[in-house]
Each structure stands twice: as structure tokens, then as C-alpha cells.
Please model this.
Amino acid sequence: METYDLVVIGSGAGLNVLNVGLQVGMKCALIEDTKLGATCLTRGCIPSKVLVHPADLIREAQHAQKVGIQFNVEKIDWELISKRMWSQIDESKQIEEGLSQVPNLTLYRGIGEFIGEYEMQVKSSEGKNILGSFKGEKFVIASGARSFIPPIEGLEEVGYVTNRSFFGDKFPKQPWKSLIIIGGGVIAAEFAHIFSAMGTEVTILEMLPRLVTTEEPEISQFVEQNFKKYMKVYVNHKAIKAKGNKKMKTIIAQNMNTGKEIEVSAEEILIATGRRSNADILKVEKTGVETDEKGWIKTNHYLETNKKNIWCIGDANGLYQFRHKANYEAEICVNNIFGPEEQKKSVDYSSVPWAIFTYPQVGHVGITQQEAIDKGYEIYVAMKNYSTVAKGFAMGFENDDEDNGFFKLIVDKSYKILGAHVVGPHAAILVQPFVYLMNSGFTCSLPETHGGVDIPKLEHACPEAGSFMPIYNSMVIHPSLNEVTGWAIGNLKPINIKMEPHEHHHD
Model:
């Protein structure tokens, strides 16, 4: 049986590890059952943003009325938009062509599954044929995740779309006339924006009390409030049954509080109710790799599974499912696989940023106010609206506007940044400086760990590390939206700060 030095399962961030293995002369195998480049390139962040930007322009044209400019969207060239999107997805062909010519690399185009200790077989995507069996000295599981399909009666018979099939054989030739989106998270929010802007009648069904539950409650409320100008939104509604035909599909949803049922109908149904692990497909239990109660592969601070010489990165470990986080983990994994044992690095998730490219856009880094309180921090919180700075007013935002975006900052009592959250135009750009700040200033000497886990950034004993003081001591370009985040510091208010008792001395 063939034996490889390194086996990588998944061609997303896993390629970063594979490339280093090939550079050091390892005999490698790569397993991928879909297009090379995996979720981000072929059915996620990149192609979706090619659709988001035209949707943004449509909404901005509508917003322009507030500053005295009237635009009319004369035509939406879906064919050109689609062509640009497919040009990005089709880069997977170039990746595959390049990898097929690499010495010391065997590319298996199918579904991998463990059949024993450090032993795997690859089946064809249909599962009918075995394409090969082999052993590996080291495995990196970067197998991603797949859509979670909720148990809705009749759904399979009626049919539906996921992000995977949307960027595949179910991509519409024209925007649907109507669309039901089941779910209220990141994928749901982005698709709702894309299609509502393109003229589709969109209905969102979310069983939880609010949309985008990873965000601050104020941001969830703000997003929902603005969504309702362009689409129907039902929170606290669980989809329980589907019915219909090829022309029109109907979902029956039940109010989670009252039990009352509603019916909504549309041309298509998009399922965006979250992601689930691929560990069951890989049959990781056959090689002894442990998973948690939800099926995600468990890793330690070094991204090692409980099984020696098997690592796991990216969506497969269920933590922060973003490509930039997977790339970060790939760097850590490369160091820990190929570097000296005594120089292993541990992961630090205290400043993982993300954005939701919907309308209004959302930017996020760190923890929320409630998470900070739950973790035992004594905190200050600041809020500032776009309308309170000159550039915000120039852009058409006024105090009582429903779309008047805002910034929320959470810091502890030493002014260390715990979380920064933005909703409104350019949110992803406005939150990024706080990512840099949360990672800055760690130059003071730290106690040696002697083989233990690295000290997380938020626990470093450096008063200047990760604080907002660089902003406080800096000039902020005027007039610019940077003033929304830069000047928010002046609005800091104590939330649960415990005042130190004064000591009274009597002679």
C-alpha cells in the first residue's frame, strides 16, 4: 500500500500546509471532492462578494436621494455580473492544472474516509468506485463544513438551494422573482441583500429571536429594522413544513412563542441555517480522532487532534468559520509540523475579526458587551453614530434616521480593547484598525512558559498592550468616517466598574 509523508484533506487553507510539505521534499497526497480552492473561492466569500458589490451600488443609488441626487437603475445586467463571478470560481481550474504537474504530489479527486489507523481510502464523488487506498505519516484535516439542512417535512420533495448548489448547477439565469431564506445568520443576511437589491421579493424565516446572533443586540435590531424596508422578516418563526410544485414553493412556519402558523410562498427556497461538520463523512472515529457533541473535530492549542501526527484547521474544527482564520491556523500548523518541537506555537482567537457584507454592513472584532460581563471583566462601553461627525452628515445620515449607523466599543478598566463593533457603510474598514490595536504593544517581557500554552493576548501583563491609547493620542483625519471610531472614546461610560473603597485614616 502506498504511504505518503503528508496527506492533506481539503484544498482551501490546506494548500498552504501542502505547499510547505512539497517545498521540503515530502511525498504528499491531496484529497478534494469538489472544485479546487474549496469554499471561499468556489462557493463562498469571493464569488458572493462579486454579487454583493452591485447590490451595494443599487442601495447607495437609492440612498443618494437623501443628499439631493436622483439615480435611476436602468438595467441590471445579470449576465455580466454572473460572468464576472464565474471568472473567479473558474480559477479553481488553474489551481488543479498547476497541482497536477507538481512532482511528489498525488491529487485524489473524490471523498476521503479513514479505514484504519493512519489509513485512508478515496471514493468517487458518487461513492461507487474506490479511487485509491493509502497510508500517511502525517495528516492535516482541512475538510471544511457543509450546509446544515433542518428537518422540515416535505423539503426534499419540494427542493431547495444551498450556498454550494447556488454556486453550481442551481445558479439562476436571472434573479428569482421571489425567494424564501430559511435562517438569519451571515449567509442568509448576504443573500437577502443581494437578491432584494436585484428586485427579488425576499422573505426571511429565522427561528431565533433576532438576526445575526453573533452580533450585539443593538446591531441585530438595526439590521432587522433596515431589512424590513426591502423584504419581509419573520424572527421567532420555525419552518416546519414545505409543499408546492416546480413553479411555486410554500413554507409553513410556526411562531416559537404563540404556536400560530403562517404560510409564505416563493419561486425558490434557500437554506442558510448554519454549517455542520464533515467529520462523519471522513469517518474520523476509525483513526481515533475525537469530535465534540456537535461533531466538530476537537483540537488543542497547537491545532493537534488527540491522535499524534493528525492536525485539524479551518471550518473542520468548528471555530470561527472564516477564511482568514483558516489561513492563520495554517501558518500555526506549518510552524508546528515543520518547526522544532520546542518552538511550537499556540493559537490565539482573542482578536478574530469578521464582516457581514450585507446592507447595512457589519464589522466585528473581539467579544460583545454581554460576553465581556460573563467573562468577569469590569468594562466601559462607548457608542457613537455616523450622524455625529461631519462626514456622516455629508453622506446623508441624520440623528433620527433608521439607517444612521454606529460604532460600539467595549474596553476593560485598564482601557484594553475587548471588542469593537460597527454597523453601517464601510464597517469592515472601520473595524480593522482595532484588530491591529488588539494585536499591538506586546513587547514587554513575559514569563517563560516552559512548554506550556502561550499566554493569550488579553491576559498579557502589559498595561499598554492592546489599549485604545494610540487612537487617543493620535490625530484623526477630518472630516472622515474615522472620527466615528476615533472620537467614540470620549463617550465611554462605566457599565459594571466596581469603585475602590476610600480608606479613611484617623490620627
User: Anything to note?
Assistant: The chain is about 25% helix and 25% strand. Residues 158 and 245 are 7 Å apart (CA to CA). Residues 2-146+276-343 form a domain with the FAD/NAD(P)-binding domain fold (CATH 3.50.50.60).
